[in-house]
Amino acid sequence: MLRNRIYYQLKPFIPRALRAAVRRRIALRLEARVQDVWPIMPGSEQTPPGWQGWPDGKKFALVLTHDVEGPVGLRRCRRLAKLESELGFRSCFNFVPAGQYIVPPELREELTSEGFEIGVHDLHHDGRLYRTWRGFVGKAKRINEYLADWNAEGFRSGFMLHKLDWLHQLAIRYDMSTFDTDPFEPQPEGRHTIFPFFIARPQANQQTNGNVDGYLELPYTLPQDSTLFLLLRHETSEVWIRKLDWIARHGGMALLDTHPDYMAFQGAPDTSVEYPVERYREFLHYVQDKYSETCWHALPREVTSYVLEMRNTQLVSEPATSIDLNGWQPQPLATIANLQGRPGTQGVVAEKDRRLHGKRVGVLLFSNYPADPRPRRAAEALTREGAIVDLLCMQQNEREPRHENVNGVNVSRLPFRRYRGGKLTYVGQYSAFILISFVYLTIRSLRKRYDFIHVHNMPDVLVFAAAAAKLRGSKLILDLHDPMPELMQTIFKLPAESLSVRALKTMERKSIAFADLVLTVNIACQNLYSARSCRRDKIRVVLNSPDDYIFRFRPANMNGANDGTIEKTYSILYHGSLVARNGLDLAVEALEIVRKSIPNVKLVVCGERTPFLERVMEVARERQLENNIDYLGVQNLNGIVEAITTCDLGIIPNHKNIFTEINTPTRIFEYLALGKPVIAPRTKAIQDYFGDRDLIFFELGDAADLARQIEYAFTHPKEVTEITQRGQRVYLDHTWTRERAQFLDAVDEVL
User: Fold this and answer.
1) How many CB atoms are closer than 10 A to CB 669?
2) Per-residue pLDDT for 617 more than 70?
3) What is the pLDDT of residues 296-324, one digit of tens each?
4) Would the CA dihedral through 654, 645, 47, 300 be positive or negative?
5) Of 8-12, 129-133, 412-416, 451-455, which has the strongest mean pLDDT?
6) What string of DSSP letters covers 476-491?
7) Residues 609-628: b if buried by 16+ CB within 10 A, e if exposed
8) Which residues have a Cβ under 8 Å from the Cβ of 106 and sit 6 or more positions away?
9) Rounded to whole angstroms, how far apart are CA atoms 335 and 345?
C-alpha cells in the first residue's frame, strides 16, 4: 500500500513518542468501531473441510511465539525462556537477522537445547521488505542463508506486512505473517480463520527458488501484546483469556505473538513502551489451570508437520494470489486440490484433470459475499473444479476489504448497501448496481473473455449487465433464487394484475430469454417459470441444500429427544430472516397456547434485528411471554449449527401468501441434517419433496394448528424420531454434495 510505503520511508525521522501517540489516538477511536469483528471475527471458527482434529484427541492447539525486535528484547530472551520453562511451556523466538543487534550463536544453541524453536523475523525489520519484486528477490537470498545457518523452518515479516505468493522464494515450511482478525495492523485484511491453511506454489511463470510445493500459513489468533497493552492500554489479560476460551470451544489454534522488548521484568514499567510481565505470566497460569489436559501445546514446526501430513484429507487451503509485479491483480492459482503427485496427497484430483481447469468465470451478486450461502457454495464449487472466479458484490460495511480472495474466489466489493424501502428505493438501488456491473464486466471482458457469467437474482434484469460479455462470446447463466413478481406481491401487497407485477413478469421473461441457461431453487419455481417465461428444458433445479461440511449429518435417535417431561426446558428454535412473511408472530401466538401444557417451553430466535422483530417482541411483552423467548441475534453458520444441536424442535412458521406457497426453506434440511425434528408448512413446494409422513406439517398460516403440532412433538418423542428419520432419507437424496454435481453438470452443458 502506498500509505505504508510513505510511512516507513518517513518513520526514521519521526520521534518515537510522537509516532506512538498518534497511533494510540487512532487505535482508541477504532476500537469502539470494530467490536463486532475484533478480537473475535464471527465465522472464523468454521472448521476446514476434512479437518481431523488435533493429536491425541486434544481440544485445541496453543502456539507461543516471540518477536525480538531490538537489543532490549535480545537481553530479555533468557529471562522469558526461564519463565516459560518453570511453568512447563516452550515457544519460538523469532530473531531479526540483519537488524539492530547480532544474535549470539550461543543464545540460539542454548534455546534450542532447552526445547525452544528459532525462527527468522524479516531481514532488517524496517517495513521495506516488499517494496519491489527485484529487491525482495535479493533479500530472499540473504534470508535463506540465515534460515539454513540457524536451522530454522519458519518466517514472520516485520509489522505483519505480507505478500504470501512472494514468500515462495523462501526456503520455509511455514509462515506466521497473517492473522485471523486485527484491524489495528498496517495491512489490516485478516484471513478470517483460526486454523492453519496451505499456500500452494504458484503455477505461473514466476520463478521460485525456495519452497517446492508450498508452505503452511499459521495466522496469529490472539491479539499481540503491543496492541493490547501499549496501543489500547488494557490493564489485564482478559481479552487473551476470553478469546482463548472461544478458540478452545471451537477447536482452533490459539497462536500468540508477544515481544520481550515490551515486557518489564522488574521495577515499574515505562507504560509508553512496556507492560508488566505478570500479564503474560497470568495468561500462562490460566492455560495451565484450565486446559492442561485438553490443550495441545506445540511449537510452530510441530503444528506444521502435523497439518502437512493431514493434507491428503482435503484440509482447506487459502489459494495463493498472483500479483502483477507492475501493480496488483488478484488471480487464484492453486488450492489443495492441485497438489496431485506430491507427498501425502494421494487421491486428490490433479489441476489439469479438473473439469473447469483454466475457465474464467464472472459472478454478479446484488448481495453480500460470502454471507449469501447459495452464491458462496456455487463459486467455491467452481474454483474447486479449477475455474478462475471473479465476483462482484456489495460491501456490507466499511470494515470489509474492497478486494480480497475468499477461498479461491476473487471478490470485488462496491461501497454500496442495500436498504429496505418503497418500490422506488428498490428501483434506484437495482439500477445503480446494474450500471456499475455493466461497466465492470465490459472492461474485464475487453481484457480477456469470460467463458461464462453467473448472475444471481434479484433483480432478474441484472443479467443484462453482461451484454458486452455476451457479445464477446460469454455464456450467461441466470440463477433465479426468488420469483420477483411473487416476492414483490408479498412485500408490497400488490394485486396480481397491477402494472408493477405485470412489468416484473415481462422483465423476468426477457431476462430468461437473454440467458443461455436458467437455474432455480425447487420444482415449484421450475414449474412457475416454464409456465409463463420459457420452455422447461432451459431450467435446471439446484436445491438450496446446506453445506454438508458444516451441517455434518447426525442420525436422528431417541437419545437426543426430549422425553416429554414437563420439568425440563423444551427448546423450540426459529432461525432466519425476521420479516413478516416468515411468521415469527405466528410462532409467538403458538407459544402462548402451548405454554399452558408445556410450562417450561422456550422459543429461541436467531436473526438480524428488524422493526418487525421489535413489534413482535412488544406483543410478547404484553402477553407476558418475554421470559419464554431468548433472542440470540445474528449467528454465523457455526452458531446456527450449535443452536440447532441444542434445540428440541425446529419450526418454519410461515404466513400464507403467494411467495411462501412456492418456497422450499433451506432450514428444513438444516434441521434434518443435524437429526432434529422440524415443523413445516403444508405447501406444494415442500410436498414436492416430502411425503405426509416425512415431516411434521401444520396448515400454512394457522397459529392454532402450529401449537397443536408443537404439543404433538412434545408428547410423542418416539413417533417424532421416526418421522425425522424418514425426513432424513429425503435430505440424503439432496445433500449439497449431490446438488453440487447437478450444478456442475448444468455448467458443463452450457459450455
Assistant:
1) 25
2) yes
3) 999 999 999 999 888 644 433 343 333 22
4) positive
5) 451-455
6) EEEEESS-HHHHHHHH
7) eeebbeebbeebeeeebeeb
8) none
9) 12
Angstrom distance (rounded) from CA 364 to CA 381: 16
- Cell 422440524 belongs to residue: 678
Tally of CB atoms within 10 A around 419: 8
For residues 661-669, give the mean pLDDT: 95
Instruction: Please indicate whether residue 67 or residue 738 has the higher confidence score (pLDDT).
Output: 67
Whether the model pTM is above 0.70: no
For 541, the grid coordinates are 433445479
Distance of CA 243 to the CA centre of its chain: 17
Q: Is 109 exposed, middle or buried (0-12, 13-18, 19+ CB in 10 A)?
A: exposed
Query: Measured in Å, how far apart are the chain's first and last C-alpha atoms?
Result: 39
Nine cell digits for residue 421: 424501502
CB neighbour class for 726 (10 Å; exposed up to 12, middle 13-18, buried from 19): middle
Q: Kindly state the helix (H) or strand (E) to which residue 541 belongs, with its residue range.
A: strand 539-541
Cβ neighbours of residue 13 under 8 Å, at least 6 residues apart? none
**C-alpha cell belonging to residue 742:** 447437478
Report whether pLDDT(32) > 80. Answer: no
Helix (H) or strand (E) holding 603: strand 601-606
Task: Identify the sign of the CA torsion 309, 313, 316, 319.
Answer: positive
State whether residue 232 is helix, strand or coil. Answer: coil
